[in-house]
Write a structure and sequence with these properties.
nine-stranded parallel beta sheet, 397 residues, eight-stranded mixed beta sheet, alpha/beta
Amino acid sequence: MTTEADTTILLRGARALLPRGAAERASVLVRGGLIAHIAEGASEPESAAARVIDLEGTTLLPGFVDAHIHGAVGVDVNEADEDALHEVARFLARRGVTAWLPTLVPDAEDAYARAALAVARLMDSQDARPPAARALGLHYEGPFVNSQQCGALRTQFFRAYGGPSDLDALAAVPRDGARHVATVAPEIEGGVELIRELTRRGWVVSVGHTRATVAELERAREAGARHMTHFLNAMSPLHHRAPGPVGWGLVRDDVTVDLIADGVHLDPLALRLVLRCKTPARVALISDSVAPAGLGDGEFRVWGETISVRAGRTSNERGSIAGSVTNLLDAFRLVSALDTTVEDASRMASLNPARLLGVDSTCGTIEEGKRADLVALDGEGRARLTLVGGRVAHEDL
């Protein structure tokens, strides 16, 4: 029986962003879910493909990878089953996202266990479901973080680290190949030892929700933490006598950062500053979106409290920003408007997060042999076509 993933598709006429540079009027042949052949200025014979899709006037990019997302379209990752998670994945595909890392806020241990099982079930079934962004694993934003930089996180679930048994609370996704990220504040009790143990287990450790000193951050880096969560947000600000996480992150070339480019969390000048210091090679874009994303303005119950959304800004009952209602397509467009090249914006939305999660050998760039995780954008930055593993997950042509 022939499945959709077995179908051969020829994408013809787009400007394709390849690792060596942009290829004008490229032809990309997709076969068996992979990129089988790329040609510039010429087309494969139509007989070689079961379907030919004309993408003239669009730019073909590697699909976006969102490594930090709490939910969308009314679905909260902390509470969702695999069917609800798939609804988020379908929403993401309509916005050019081809892979994502469901992200948890601090919660009870049984909630963590349910979430890990739901993600595992989705990962086991997603190839048999209607095409949508692939779930890659799980991101724990806390609970090992600093209550003085809690942001919208629930401090009643925060904890210190006393030894490996404390990691039993962080349920791993029971599936081979699942990726795991933990956002940790190294200055909490046992923080550096926690980072060392997570790194030993193969988890990606990201510094966030922190007031760490430079000395504490150096110990964290030596223990394995080489990334920073929603840089500039939920961390102590830069001070000329106490540079802290912001100063340290800006100057450490072996540390990468991610940013919420929604026009709310960061002033455009702050974005420019980070890009000037870190360069696009060390920056990943994230959405940090929450359940109301995609639903417009209103009031919503999220994480046990009311979150208001007005003109793209979230606010919880304490007046704090509570995640975003953006997506990586909007973030891509925002940074592209900051005199950032399309190539650099693409790298921050695709290759860099894929590299952070260790999946860049299979996605994140348009190359022969890689997964056909692709998005075609028109001249106004709208997603016209999204392929996930060679399957059409979104089409508006």
